[in-house]
């Protein structure tokens, strides 16, 4: 894990000092809200429906126990005892008081964290595969290059006033767990002729106009990566739309100009600026890589795991659902669900944060990850420790065996918190999770990803959900549109809209009809929802959704 040097420490301290003075001026009336707004957004502070909200960056989703405990302490001291983990691998505090925010930022700095560039028209928190450094299918750990991009982009003088926000995601695996094709720039580590480099994808994004990113260049070498990224962002900064914020994202620029013209402009800009990169970035990258050395794995028997798996059905269900393959023999990746049935997706109490920190410190080589799916990962756990870990998770409400199942729902905060939302997300997610837990169907249903957004901005990634739900305001009434067949993997696609939306009272029944239709349509129990949808298409699901309503109306 990367550690701050003297420059980093001084930089963050100075930014916090500046913001403390700005907060004081806002409180005493020297600054109006309109004057204060761009200053607070530069430091991750939003004004939501009921209170301020502070968004804290967790770079590429990586934490250690000290950082997680500090997040818990902040939740207890200055919030309401919990935090909300987001699809950008950040944590949000929903109830801070303005005069406390500078103290919160100083507390974060004590463990080398901050909220810089978690808002505003700049390059946001760089995200990565939450299995980074542990995944069995990984070509290389993407976190060193994510850290290189983070350092390059933080306070970059050319990119502080971009046309709109800009998001970068990195994966080191052919199996995409970072949704790179739905980002402004997606980076995939690849190998070509024995050399490790990067495939660069541009122009992805969800929101009002969802688009899947296009390959800008199939292979960029390590020495060319930063200048190539700088050329790409620079071209967009020059020609991106500033006349209409709804057309300002790079996806619209790529759409309007075409990928070939964008590629030509980037290559021309790259040729111009490449000589100015004299190799300092490569030296920095080498130093960064040293900070991400693999843990000292231990070689030990796994008899405790095998015994528990054989004789404890609850443990076996959890292991089958929440564990993933690790690259090291005898190890597993543990996915901790923050989706207890009926709970708010992505929320963790301060007590739960401390429990996860303790487990990471004692059993997980002191590493934790936040996933874009709003769960927490222990990336390096020896299998012999899994029964003890499961017992501790179970004691604290963290052992729900539902990773990848219908109740493992991604949901934005919606109208319960967000000033931009036009409908509630959290209650809908809670109702769906609770209902399918009551039906005891979710393990039979298998891999099915529901994603919910409370407005067109799509913070809940609904466009790429197997079942996507978009909440909108229709004449003062919440209305929920459904999309089907979305995909957030390396085969990314935007889901198909089914038709008219449903009221808050109707949406649960609509989801049930879709699920029961899938169970009827699948060829056998091994065919997933996504596979069934790819085989049969939208029409049978539309029939299940709408023809039944017509039949009821005719009776």
Helix and strand layout, with pairings?
Layout lengths: L5 H22 L5 H9 L3 E3 L4 E6 L4 E2 L1 H14 L3 E4 L4 E4 L7 H9 L17 E2 L14 H11 L14 E4 L13 E8 L2 E8 L11 E7 L1 H18 L10 H8 L1 H15 L6 H11 L12 H9 L1 H10 E3 L5 E6 L10 E3 H14 L4 E3 L5 E7 L3 H10 L14 E2 L14 H14 L2 H4 L4 E4 L13 E8 L2 E8 L11 E2 L4 E2 L3 H15 L7 H8 L2 H16 L1
Parallel strand pairs: 6-7, 7-8, 16-17, 17-18
Antiparallel strand pairs: 1-2, 2-5, 3-14, 4-5, 4-13, 8-9, 9-10, 11-12, 12-15, 14-15, 18-19, 19-20, 19-21
Put the structure in a nutshell:
The protein has 555 residues and is α+β, with helices and mostly antiparallel strands. The protein has 18 helices and 21 strands. The longest helix is centred in the first third of the chain and has 22 residues, at 6-27.
Molecular structure report:
The chain is α+β, with helices and mostly antiparallel strands and 555 residues long. 39% of the residues lie in helices and 17% in strands. It has helices spanning 6-27, 33-41, 65-78, 101-109, 143-153, 222-239, 250-257, 259-273, 280-290, 303-311, 313-322, 350-363, 386-395, 426-439, 442-445, 507-521, 529-536, 539-554, and strands at residues 45-47, 52-57, 62-63, 82-85, 90-93, 127-128, 168-171, 185-192, 195-202, 214-220, 323-325, 331-336, 347-349, 368-370, 376-382, 410-411, 450-453, 467-474, 477-484, 496-497, 502-503. Strands 16, 17, 18, 19, 20 and 21 form a six-stranded mixed beta sheet that branches. It has a five-stranded antiparallel beta sheet with strand order 1-2-5-4-13. Strands 3-14-15-12-11 form a five-stranded antiparallel beta sheet. A hairpin with a 5-residue loop joins β11 and β12. α3 (65-78) runs antiparallel to α12 (350-363). The longest helix is centred in the first third of the chain and has 22 residues, at 6-27. The protein is globular. Mean pLDDT is 97; it is low at 551-555.
